[in-house]
Amino acid sequence: MAGRDVSEDYEEYLEGYARILADASATGRRLTRDELESRRALGEQAAEAGIGLRALVGAHMAATRAHWPTGESMSVDDALGAAAQAVDAFAEGYERAQRLAVRQEEAARREFIDDLLYGRSDLGRLAQRAERYGLRLSYEHAVAVARGTVAYEEGDTVLREVEHALIGRFGDRSILLTTKDGRLVCIAPGDQSEVLAHFAKQAFAATGGGQVGIGRPQPGAAGVVQSYEEALNALDLGERLELDEPVLHAADLLVYPVLTRDRQAMADLVESALGPLRGARGGPQPLLDTLTAYFDSGCVSAEAARRLSLSVRAFTYRLERIHKLTGADPSEPVHRYTLQTAVIGARLLDWPSKPSQVRK
Predict the structure, then answer these.
(1) Please, are residues 7 and 14 in contact by the beta-carbon 8 Å criterion?
(2) What is the spatial distance between Cα 325 and Cα 339, in angstroms, rounded to a whole number?
(3) Closest CA to 38 of 54, 26, 55, 23
(4) In 3-state terms, the chain is what percent helix, strand and coil (to 5)?
(5) Cα–Cα distance, 248 to 144 (Å, whole number)
(6) What is the DSSP letter of 246?
(7) Do the Cβ atoms of 315 and 347 come closer than 8 Å?
(8) With CB atoms counted within 10 Å of each terminal CB, which end of the chain scores lower, N or C?
(9) What is d(CA 183, CA 113) in angstroms, rounded to the nearest whole number?
């Protein structure tokens, strides 16, 4: 019993093929522009229908056998050439449709990510779109943001490298990895901190030592925005405070937003506590660096002096000079707290480089 002709399963995508094969083979001509375009159009339709190209090529080969041209003037080379042109045009149309689908998918994904991270769009519709990318916005999510020395975009090698590492270890765990404003962004379920920890490790390696900020787990679509902003703020604080830790957790830096919540009050404190340092020879910066090193070293003069490449005696002299100018003794607990808070404020407000911001 003869087997079923495979070409019959895809007959609608082979429309006109037998006629084109016969006409072109009879004269040895190349396919006309209209004939080629008809093949491309059918290829696009087949791609949009989700049919595999391999099966469609097989159907063309089956149709070629079934409708092989006959006649004394027919050349095998002419017939095979016509078939090759037809199949090539069909594949071109198929691939064109696929590329368009990919671009449309990328555009839809980028639009969703922008809406998600900026809190735009209707929440109900946003939640529906999120499920397409594996996110259930009714749950808690946390966001990590990695910053490197260059800007990253979708499709970059660095992003693919980090993505392969995450999928290889965790598989599909409702993880969304993307880029935003040149940074790598990872969104993961809030109860899976190990995912973001591994992202931070891989991003640090892939970006050549880039810093990562991690926001706190937050519920709902608005929670994703909040966690994302916390991650960005952590990176911003890390830069302004010159924190060199590879991973900055927003939960560990909550004191700083509290300190700057009343910006004018902090500016007044900085000006009141540190303003007198302007009277020092060489300006306030060396003495401000002295206080920074002193507090960062746990108020151990020997360690602070080492960090500044000073002798302990020279460092102690600087502390005495600070005491004389400000009236506050860094070694005395109450004064120390005021000075340390003012030093943090100076970092956050970029004082004394931008004193105008402090005086506002």
Answers:
(1) yes
(2) 13
(3) 23
(4) 65, 10, 25
(5) 10
(6) S
(7) no
(8) N
(9) 13
Task: Give residue 1's pLDDT band: very low, low, confident or very high (50, 70, 90).
Answer: very low
Q: Cα–Cα distances in Å, from 255 out to 57, 82, 237, 260?
A: 65, 74, 11, 9
| Residue 123 pLDDT exceeds 90 | no
Phi (first) and psi of residue 335, to 5 degrees: -65, -40
- Find where tokens 């006309």 sit: 32
pLDDT band at 230 (very low <50, low <70, confident <90, very high): very high
What's the mean pLDDT in 278-304? Answer: 91
Give the tokens for residue 79.
């017939």
Closest CA relative to residue 350, chosen from 288, 272, 300: 288
Sign of dihedral through CA atoms 157, 158, 163, 164? Answer: positive
Give the chain's length.
360
How far is it, in rounded angstroms, from Cα 192 to Cα 174? 10
Give the Cα separation of 68 and 97 in Å (integer).
29
Regarding pTM above 0.70, the answer is no
The backbone region for 265, taken as left when phi is positive above 0, alpha when psi lies in -120 to 50, beta otherwise, is alpha
Go through 231-246 and write b for each residue having 16 or more CB atoms within 10 A of its CB, e for each that does not. Answer: bbbbbebbeebeeeeb
Distance separating alpha carbons of residues 120 and 221, to the nearest angstrom? 10
Distance CA 358, CA 204 (A): 35
195 class by beta-carbon count within 10 Å (0-12 exposed, 13-18 middle, 19+ buried): buried
CA gap 223, 240 in Å, rounded: 25
Dump pLDDT digits (tens) for 78-108: 899 999 999 999 999 999 988 888 777 778 8
Banded pLDDT at 182 (limits 50, 70, 90): very high
